């Protein structure tokens, strides 16, 4: 077994153990969140969207729904987006809407740490770069998630949010994703997870 395969195997075991444990701890939080969404804005409680994962395999990503039903708009969200529900304005900054993605990790669609999965439209724009990036599973958090944690505010200030995202932000995210693919270890994953937790606790 090569060192790369061994590393990926250890990473997968780590993902299963940690995500399973956190999911069990999170159930007392997730049930009230699901109930609150149902009561305040109806069903569905979960938002599902097609994303592109390891080896360009497509999968459904799960989040708690934070936008109004039948809302129309761009594929990206900007600060102050009127589609976001009242409850969503609380869940999104705390990243509580991301909790269902622990199930994606257990299923093998995602990893705890890895490049954030994109929708097919944006993957097709940078397909050559994604050939490298998608040699690892996408993750719940990564270097780009930390650097662009205020992405919605950045896009709100832009006159052309879609262009800002596709021409400036996404290429920078891909730079960080390629760096992660080249250098990641279990220790770097733990470091990114701890940094992410610290940012969430601080609220910024």
Task: Please write out the topology.
Elements: H1 3-41, E1 46-52, E2 58-64, H2 88-91, H3 101-107, E3 111-113, H4 120-125, H5 127-133, E4 139-141, H6 143-147, H7 151-156, H8 161-183, H9 186-202
Parallel strand pairs: 3-4
Antiparallel strand pairs: 1-2
Helix pairs in contact: 1-3, 5-8
* Structure classification: mainly alpha
* Count of strand segments: 4
The run of helices and strands is HEEHHEHHEHHHH
With helices defined by DSSP (H or I, 4 residues minimum), what is the helix count?
Answer: 9
Strand content: 5-15%
| Mean pLDDT, all residues | 89
Please tell me about this protein's structure.
With 204 residues, the protein is mostly helical. The protein has one domain (3-202). Helices cover 56% and strands 10% of the residues. The chain contains nine helices and four strands, in the order H-E-E-H-H-E-H-H-E-H-H-H-H. It is globular.
Give a quick rundown of the structure.
The protein has 204 residues and is mostly helical. The protein has helices spanning 3-41, 88-91, 101-107, 120-125, 127-133, 143-147, 151-156, 161-183, 186-202; strands at 46-52, 58-64, 111-113, 139-141. The protein has one domain.
Structure characteristics:
two-stranded antiparallel sheet, two-stranded parallel ribbon, 204 residues, single chain, globular, mainly alpha, 56% helix
């Amino acid at each position: 077994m090569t060192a790369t395969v061994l590393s990926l195997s250890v990473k997968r075991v780590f993902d299963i153990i940690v995500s399973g444990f956190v999911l069990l701890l999170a159930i007392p939080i997730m049930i009230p969140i699901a109930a609150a969404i149902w009561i305040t804005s109806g069903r569905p409680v979960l938002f599902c969207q097609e994303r592109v994962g390891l080896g360009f395999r497509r999968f459904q990503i799960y989040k708690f729904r934070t936008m109004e039903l039948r809302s129309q708009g761009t594929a990206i969200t900007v600060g102050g987006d009127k589609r976001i529900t009242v409850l969503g304005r609380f869940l999104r900054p705390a990243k509580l809407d991301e909790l269902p993605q622990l199930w994606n990790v257990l299923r093998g669609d995602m990893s705890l740490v890895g490049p954030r999965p994109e929708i097919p439209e944006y993957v097709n724009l940078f397909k050559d770069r994604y050939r490298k990036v998608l040699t690892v599973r996408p993750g719940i958090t990564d270097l780009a998630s930390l650097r662009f944690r205020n992405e919605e505010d950045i896009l709100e200030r832009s006159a052309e949010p879609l262009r800002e995202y596709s021409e400036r932000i996404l290429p920078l995210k891909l730079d960080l994703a390629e760096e992660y693919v080249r250098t990641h270890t279990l220790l770097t994953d733990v470091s990114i997870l701890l940094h992410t937790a610290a940012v969430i606790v601080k609220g910024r």
